[in-house]
Amino acid sequence: MTAVPTRQAAPLLAELTQQLHLFFHALDTRRYERMLELFTDDCRWLRQGQWLEGKAAVRAALEARPAGLETRHVLTNAHVSACEEAWVEVEAYMTAYRYRAAAQPGDVPSCPGPLRFNLTTTVFRRDPDCDWRIAEQRMVAAFAFAG
């Protein structure tokens, strides 16, 4: 694969990482409607080893998440890995944290440490309103942290 020139990648990366940060923030705060707005209607999402096809499948998986567990996702080292006229691909590292929700409002929950380190590859397409939407995302575990 040919490297994407910096002059082409840099302006795209700012927009696309903004979308990724919105995506993971919505996931962590369980704002699923906002999260689903970031997907194309025909999206594909490889989540926890399972392909989810379309927004209805994504919604069902999100709504099945356990209520007593919280997550935080930290995205780093993002770069534009491929770029065509109709789509752009971004690769990044994502570290996931999972922990039990605080017992009382205002309590600081305890987290045993990171859960997993993933390679996250996201393919974006522009929608008719000229915003970037996630057409496909693959989150593949590179390793799990010993705990």
For the largest beta-sheet, the strand count, sense and barrel status come to: 6 strands, mixed
| Class by SSE composition | alpha+beta
The CATH class label is Alpha Beta
CATH topology grouping: Nuclear Transport Factor 2, Chain: A
Verbal overview:
There is one protein chain. A six-stranded mixed beta sheet has the order 2-1-6-5-4-3. It is globular. It has one domain (6-144): Nuclear Transport Factor 2, Chain: A, CATH 3.10.450.50. The termini are far apart. It contains three helices and six strands. It has 147 residues and is of the alpha+beta class. 17% of the residues are buried. The mean pLDDT is 94.
Topology:
Layout: H1 6-28, H2 32-37, E1 39-47, E2 50-53, H3 55-63, E3 69-83, E4 87-100, E5 114-126, E6 132-144
Parallel strand pairs: 1-6
Antiparallel strand pairs: 1-2, 3-4, 4-5, 5-6
Give short descriptive properties of this protein:
globular; alpha+beta; 46% strand; 147 residues; 3 helices; 6-stranded mixed β-sheet
Condensed summary:
This protein is of the alpha+beta class and 147 residues long. It contains 3 helices and 6 strands; from the N terminus they run H-H-E-E-H-E-E-E-E.
